[in-house]
Amino acid sequence: MKITVVGAGAVGASCAEYIAIKNFASEVVLLDIKEDYAEGKAMDLMQTASLNGFDTKITGSTNDYSKTAGSDIAVITSGIPRKPGMTREELIGINAGIVKEVSSNIIKHSPDVTIIVVSNPMDTMTYLVHKTTDLPKNRIIGMGGALDSARFKYRLAEALEAPISDVDGMVIGGHSDKGMVPLTRLATRNSVLVSEFISEDRLSQVSEDTKVGGATLTKMLGTSAWYAPGAAVSGLVQAIACDQKKIFPCSTLLDGEYGLNDLCIGVPVVLGKGGIEKIVEIKLDEAEMNKLKESAEGVKKTNGLLEL
Ligand SMILES: NC(=O)c1ccc[n+]([C@@H]2O[C@H](COP(=O)([O-])OP(=O)(O)OC[C@H]3O[C@@H](n4cnc5c(N)ncnc54)[C@H](O)[C@@H]3O)[C@@H](O)[C@H]2O)c1
C-alpha cells in the first residue's frame, strides 16, 4: 500500500505521522514545493520509527511526482491555511490553482489512485477535482466531517462529563463555520440519546462550539490546527487501505441523494477499498434537512467562484 501526501506542512506531516504509527502502509511519500522541506520532514519522521515501533517507509520529494508513481491513495493538503479572523472560503483564490495542478500531477503518475482532498475550502476543492479530472466519483473524497465529528464528540464528552469513548455523534453538511450540521438529536452516550442527560440549551451550546471548532483553534494557534485534522485523514486512509467498510461523514458528489445535486458536501459514506462504496441516506427530520439545504446553498455559492 503506497500513500502520497502532497503538502508536507502542518496537516500533511501530522497525517503522515499517524499513518506511519498505525503501521498499515508500506510506504508514505511526502511531497512539497518547498526545496528539501518534504525530505527533511520525512527524515525527521523516519528517525521516530525505532522509537514508535513502525516499519512504514517515509520518503520526501521536492515536487518530483515520479516518486509518487503507483500510489493507491493520495492526500492533498497543499495550499495556504487560514489566519485568525479568516473564513475557509477566503482561501479559494490561491488554493484552487494549487489543488487543480496537484491533482492532475498525481493522476499522471497514479491513474488508479483514490484522492482525499483536505485543502480548504474543502467541499469546493473536492468539487473542483471532480470537474477537472476523469477519476470516478467514488475515488474522490473530501475530508471534513470526520474532523468535525471528532470535535463534536470532544464537546459532547465535555458537556456530559463523560469519557470521549463513551459518546458517539456525527456532523454532516459543509465544512464551514456556518454550514456544519451537528446531529445533536442522534448523538448518544453508550446507546442512550444524549438528550436524556443534558438540556436542549446545553446541546445547542455544544453544537455552536463544534461549528466554530476550527476558528477557535486558529485564534489560539495563529494558524489552523493539525493534530486532529492529521488523525482524521489517517482514519479515512486506513479505512480504504484496510478495506474496513467504516462509516465516516465525507464530502462526496451528490446526485439526488438528500435531494441535492451537482455539489460535494458532507454526508455519511461507507469507506472501503473501492473508496466511497456507498452513500448512506439517514432519515433527517425537517429542521435537520433545512439546515443541510441551507449549508448546500453556501457550498454552491463558493463553487460559483471557481473558474471552471
Ligand atoms: N479539511 C479539513 O478538515 C482541514 C483541516 C485543517 C487544515 N485544512 C487545510 O489544509 C491546508 C493545509 O494546512 P496546513 O496547516 O498544513 O498548511 P501549511 O502551510 O502548514 O502546509 C501547506 C504546505 O503546502 C505546500 N504547498 C503549497 N503549494 C504547493 C504545491 N503547489 N505543491 C506542493 N506543495 C505545496 C506548502 O509549501 C506547505 O508546506 C489548508 O488549506 C488548510 O486550510 C483543512
From TrEMBL:
The active site is at H175 (proton acceptor). This is Malate dehydrogenase. It catalyses: (S)-malate + NAD(+) = oxaloacetate + NADH + H(+). GO terms for biological process: lactate metabolic process; tricarboxylic acid cycle. It holds the Pfam family Ldh_1_C. Keywords: NAD, Oxidoreductase, Tricarboxylic acid cycle. It comes from Mesonia algae. Its EC number is 1.1.1.37. Residues 147-301 form the Lactate/malate dehydrogenase C-terminal domain. GO terms for molecular function: L-lactate dehydrogenase (NAD+) activity; L-malate dehydrogenase (NAD+) activity. It is an enzyme of class 1 (oxidoreductase). Substrate binds at R82, R88, N120, R151. NAD(+) binds at G7, A8, G9, A10, V11, G12, D32, N95, V118, S119, N120. Gene3D superfamilies: Lactate dehydrogenase/glycoside hydrolase, family 4, C-terminal, NAD(P)-binding Rossmann-like Domain. Residues 1-142 form the Lactate/malate dehydrogenase N-terminal domain. Belongs to the LDH/MDH superfamily. MDH type 3 family. InterPro entries: L-lactate/malate_DH, Lactate/malate_DH_C, Lactate/malate_DH_N, Lactate_DH/Glyco_Ohase_4_C, Malate_DH_type3, NAD(P)-bd_dom_sf. Catalyzes the reversible oxidation of malate to oxaloacetate. SUPFAM superfamilies: LDH C-terminal domain-like, NAD(P)-binding Rossmann-fold domains.
